[in-house]
Amino acid sequence: MRKIYIVAILMVVAAIVLLTTAADDMSTYATFGQASRTGDRVKIAGQLSKDKEMYYDPAEDPNYFSFFIKDTEGEERKVVLLSEKPQDFELSEQIVLTGQMKGDEFIATDMLMKCPSKYKDEEVYIKNEGK
Amino acid sequence: MQDIQYVGEHLLPGQIGQAAIVASFVASLFAGISYFFATQRRDKEEYETWRGMGRWGFIVHGISVFTIIGTIFYLMVNQYYEYQYVQAHVSEDLPFKYIFSAFWEGQEGSFLLWMFWHIVLGLVLMATGKQWEAPTLSVLSLIQLFIGSMLLGIYVGFGDEPSRFGSNPLMLLREVMDAPIFAKADYAAQLTGSGLNPLLQNYWMTIHPPTLFLGFASTSIPFCFAIAALWTREHKAWLKPALRWALFSGAILGTGILMGGAWAYEALSFGGYWAWDPVENMSLVPWLILIAGIHTNLIANSTGHSVRSTYIFYLLTFIFIVYSTFLTRSGVLGDTSVHAFTEMGLEVQLVGFLVFFLLFSAVVFGLRVKEIPSPKKEEATSSKEFWMFIGTLVLLFSALIITASTSLPVYNKIMQFFNPAFEGRVITDPEPHFNKYQLWIAVFIGALSGIAQYLRFREVNFKKYASKFGLHTGIALALTAVITYLCTLWIEAKAWQFLLLLFFGIFTIVTNLDYLATFVRGNLKMAGSAFSHIGFGIMIVGILASGLNKRIISNNPFVMDGLIEGASREELARNILLFKNSPLIMPPYEVTYIEDTVDVHTRTFTVNYKRRDEAGNVAEEFNLYPNVLYDKTFTKIAASNPSTKRYWNRDIFTHIASLPQVEIDMEYRRQREDSLNYRVLQAPIGQPVTLIDTVELNNLDTSVLKTYRATVVRINRTPAHPDYKPEEGDIAIGAEIKVERSDEEGVFTVNPVLVLRGQLLYSYPEQINELNAKVRINEGIFDAVFSPETELDYKPYTFKQGDKIEYQGYQIQFAGFNRKPEHPNYTPREDDIAVSAMISVQAPDGEAYLAQPVYLIRDNRPFNIKDEIPGPGLHFRFTGIDPTTETVELQIAQSNKAAERIPIELATNSLRSDYIVLEAIEFPGINLFWLGSMLMMIGLAVSMGRRIGNRVNV
To answer: Top-level CATH class of A28-114?
Structure first.
């Protein structure tokens, strides 16, 4: 057999091993319930509860921003993001957080927001009167 | 619904553009077919006829595409907002220099950019391709046909919901959406643009996309050559021209990707140049495969081995470009990427594009695979080609595992299609995940690209060569070990895997330098590969230095510790609060927020960094200028641009993470100002008044009392305030007020100002940040300061020049006349006869004052203008002159000082807002990353240049 093939086979084996270990790096989107049961570091997708308090006072702690989201099962929890409050946060429709539960709060270190397309409303098309 | 005759629309350019879209589509089809027959016909005359038709078709296609692009630019420059694409990407206030960025911000524009480069490259092929012209351009026209179909925007099918084919950039807004405004015939004049996303308004957006798309487009050319060679059975002849194009493509695509990294690092506040974002990954993957292809192509040129692999790699490169296009543009990445496009209804078409070229390549390759020549004899393990080939497998392997992880959302979609209950999987933390695997790839590449340089192609007698090989390898290993050790003094490797990577990164630098010195012997033409591999090694060292030893300077000492196991304090706290003019020590720097300036929508902050030596002297000092860009309404921050201090061995990166809410949203600031709880204090001048404030503590049933003490020191008739710009006719009053608080050290002096301009009052309050207090004066001050004349009891006195009298304990002397009187309330006229009396006053406490009441005759009538000395409350009028006795008559009165209470207002809930939230990161050795990666591209370019040179010479 050609040596190249041996190398190729070794690589395929390595790939399979890698892919099986990679499974540890992956998870499904968790819910708050699962996160508090397992205590693992997980990703949670949810919707911002716009009626609940959002708290960010940089004068107190510039790395503390708290808000509430509803996960896919509708459970609402307080989230603490260890970073500043991002711009346009209020507009976000869908939020993906990475972190883990600590007591009743979800402590997130990373956040991804999906904002609605900025061209949805008719009002953005029309010039302001008197401008 | 009745038809509306719209007015004010500009339909002609749109119609021209629409025609050009159809023309470009048809012409690419025509060119593809003509070139197809040109390739098939052996007869020279027939071939030339078909080729001529193909050329015409391709040129017409090119002109059509240029026309579409020109039309869109025309519409954009003229801001014809009735067109949806113009409305979505341009606005009145968009600077002209960003018009290109606006053009390729959208999907359609970037497709056009891609097509544009294909046409440019196609024309080069037409001019230089010789026998390759017909088959390669036939394939290129086919690719153009597919991309062009993305712009058609025609509806196909029947029933209630015909499916749309392509997304047309020249649609009118009223054709793509339904809104009440389109009921008006003159709606076009009322439209306004949404404009370019402020994040994209910088020069990187002008140069990165065209470079990247030239890179994308250039991968099509080796693909076209591969198909052409398989088609025409020219399995050898294609290798040389394909290699030139592949080297070009490798350099440009690599540069395009690097520019993306530089943009992320320099202009966006990502705090890094690479984040393993799916969009980044999927531009890297084709590049990796292309580089693998270049290596097998080199092997094939030198030995005749690996022709098949070269085909596969070049075919795969383009297929992965299409796959990348599918991933980033179909919306499938959804919430795993920061910067993927959103869905546009092109998903099916994109899948079609991908599947077609995948099957097309597979079929063409499958039909010819048997006849592709390859030497019977196996490569020797001691030969260069053997280890180079292993290297290409490692690259392919790297590309495939990146693709596998990045394609997780696609896998989820497919699984959900068969089993809707399937729960999608995601990678929890992408960066460590990718780093973990790619580290080993880099180790192998470092080792292989080092050793392989010492080996020779078609090695037949390794024994003879072995000692030389062993000597060089041995010395290189020893030298590498020494340098690695030296590097660890600077870079903390943190884990043995990183140490290993560092070792092999340096190994490839050492071996390739050796190769350059002893094998190439200064022959620069041969140096391309050495350059690239040295670049790779330097890049690895740079990645390790900047990635492992990246240090967040803006550590917050007050962070809650131990919130997350395994996460260091450093990772948790990235931002720090920096008050204006109060330096903060962020080792090794002393950082001070000095000032900020606003220019239109941009607010630039000056942040000063000082490093002191042991003696406390400033050893080094520099300023950084991060800025924020407000949106049009000043109610939010649209973009925050970092500022970086560059050293040869490290960067200091600084960006404004946040600002006080009142500085972000001016609307909120107004509300906040209105909600301040001002309390009025009647303060006699020079005597303190007190205010007791009750502060409720958060979440506790207790409150604390805080005592404020305020003293009006003096009243200022010509006040100054940073925000007050005096105008003619203003009546302005300021008060110098000293404020102190029981629990806070220090006395704070403020100078609020109140201005009466016409009928309007303008208040200029002053903030005391240390006390969270704000002070202003209210309009009562006018009554207090300008005592009503009726309450004054004037007494007449007659003075000769130099006379002195005593009045209420004050020594009052008439010092003389001033024939050019100046008085705030007196505006001279030409015929006036005016004179003022200079009166000097000495108070019992020794203080001296001067008053100058004015006497004037205007239109034969006498007038006088009073003057007053506010402190003692003395009022003077100059009421007459008796020339015969040389005396003057002065009237003097003193206002009731007890009544002179100055109404000041104090708000105790005005939070300070003179701070910024700063993120500062130190990246050591980042320039090694840029240097190394650029060297890689230069190496590719040098190799390409050498091969083009050879071609001309031969």
So the answer is: mainly beta
